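Exercise: predict the fold of this chain.
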Amino acid sequence: MVARRGIFSRTMLGSATHPCIPLSARSLRAPRQESRLRIFAGFALCLAACRAGELGAFSVVSMLGWVARRGVAGLLLSIVGQPLAAVAGPGDLDLSSLGAGRKVVDFANVLSSSQESALEKAIGVLEEGTPYRFRVFSPPPGRGPENTAQWPRDVKALREYWAEDAKWDPQSVVVLLANPRFQGRGRTSSNPISFSVASKLTERLQYRIASDTFTKIGNKFGDSGYVAAVGEDGAIVAAALNAIACLRKGVCMQPLPEAEAEALAMGAQMPSLTPDEASALSRARAKK
């Protein structure tokens, strides 16, 4: 398991491109025998799909070809008989159902409501006293990074959802990706816990939180033996609390003891540094 560079950065996703921009006049040519009405209907459907945000599996060219073959009647029948969401792409994340301000997005339903509440509280404690931001995301089964077709769209939707928070800072965020193990077709997924750290934040934490600290946290709590003992939900919560506690403490070279991490993350204990940690913090400040 490795800590990924920001999954919400432009490096990963590239710039957003409107699905209708690449079209050229040549690609939209319709046979002369087709009526203007059919062409207009094709443009209308294209516009509707673009306004919905995605064209899904259909390219605009193939869509217009479909209109040319089936005609306006077929087009209207498809709109009446099926919702436009079918054209916009199946299975897009329904983030609107969460309401505003959720920092823990659990589409895999691996966490209980009490666990989600505990993590939301811990993140609130962290963000109240530090400039850091922390988020947890568990994708629907089969919709993690291994799903290369859907993953970029899901990440983009999450970025936009979290950006609605007035305190959101993409340069100061750590995201815990909880991708639960799955079994199927003779395969079992690897470590269910990984972290994505904003590249600018990695630079700012240099000399204070080791670059592999989050990797070590993921490896410790994502270990198969640990997961078997406490369950995937317990492992995810323990990893999140440890990472939050490290950020709150400000200096962290190794995963913290679980009792200390929970007390720090939940605000029951104020951060305190050992002499070595205080020295490391002083050196880090001197290098700024």
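Check your answer against the key: Residues 224-249 form the longest helix (26 residues).
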